[in-house]
Amino acid sequence: MVREPWRFRPISFIHHLDHAGLRALPIIFLICFLIGAVVMQQGVVQLSYFGAEVMAVNMVAILSLREVGILLTSIMVAGRSGSAFTAEIGSMKMREEIDAMRTLGIDPMDTLVLPRVAALIVALPLLTFMGDIAALAGGGVMAWVMLGLDPPLYIDKLQEIVSFRHFMVGMIKAPFAAVIIALVGCLEGLRVEGSAESLGVHVTSAVVKAIFLVICIDGIFAMFLAGIGQ
């Protein structure tokens, strides 16, 4: 059977973009908001011993943009979307739909894997940006409560502290994390055998591997960027 040539499938791309991106926004915004508030609260408490409570704003701003936003977002997406990719493709594998696609000359990589990878490459940077905003907002609420910094003063303080490079350090990691999460989730799905137990094992494996690899990539980027003075 002649293999079907690859072509971009906008409907599939938009479907996965909706599921992996838009529908993940509420939980990611909430988690990042709460973590930003907790980091600010702990920062104020610990720095109060040195009379430097206001420096907690610096800590939250830089930490949120460089590390917290991208890491929390990637971990949440790995647990939510990465596992869904494995479950969806694994279920098709169990029902022998993928074998039928190959018989018809349809490449599962083109039809199932690439649209998911492309959707996550677009979705994860956008989710990371919203996660950054949420973490800063959570820190701002806690700064208002504990330090008396009202929103205009907090925003002025952020403008003094934050530079564009801090924002880009976090954002540049997002496409790499997206590729890892999507590929691990899809490839684990393709490895599912014909049992529910196998599906459960590979869903768990996809989440664990994706989170581990994302943290490794983050550490590599952190060392590299520190080495070049960024």
Task: Please give the structural blueprint.
Blueprint: H1 10-20, H2 25-47, H3 55-94, H4 97-103, H5 108-147, H6 151-161, H7 164-171, H8 174-190, H9 196-227
User: What is the total tally of β strands?
Assistant: 0
The major sheet is characterized as: none
Tally of distinct domains: 1
Give the termini separation. Answer: 53 Å
Global structural class: mainly alpha
Query: What order do the SSEs take from the amino end to the carboxyl end, as H and E?
Result: HHHHHHHHH
What is Rg?
21 Å
Rounded mean pLDDT score: 86
Q: Write down the oligomeric state.
A: single chain
Task: Tell me the strand percentage band.
Answer: under 5%
What proportion of the residues is helical, as a percent range?
A: over 70%
Helix segment tally = 9
Instruction: Provide the low-confidence segments as ranges.
Output: none
Instruction: Name the overall outline.
Output: elongated
Protein name: ABC transporter permease
Transmembrane segments: 20-40, 117-147, 167-187, 199-228
Function: Could be part of an ABC transporter complex.
Pfam families: MlaE
Detailed description of the structure:
This protein has 230 residues and is an all-alpha fold. The chain has one domain. Helix content is 82%, strand content 0%. It has nine helices and no strands. The longest helix has 40 residues, at 55-94. This is ABC transporter permease.
In short:
Pfam families: MlaE. The protein has helices at residues 10-20, 25-47, 55-94, 97-103, 108-147, 151-161, 164-171, 174-190, 196-227. The protein is an all-alpha fold and 230 residues long.
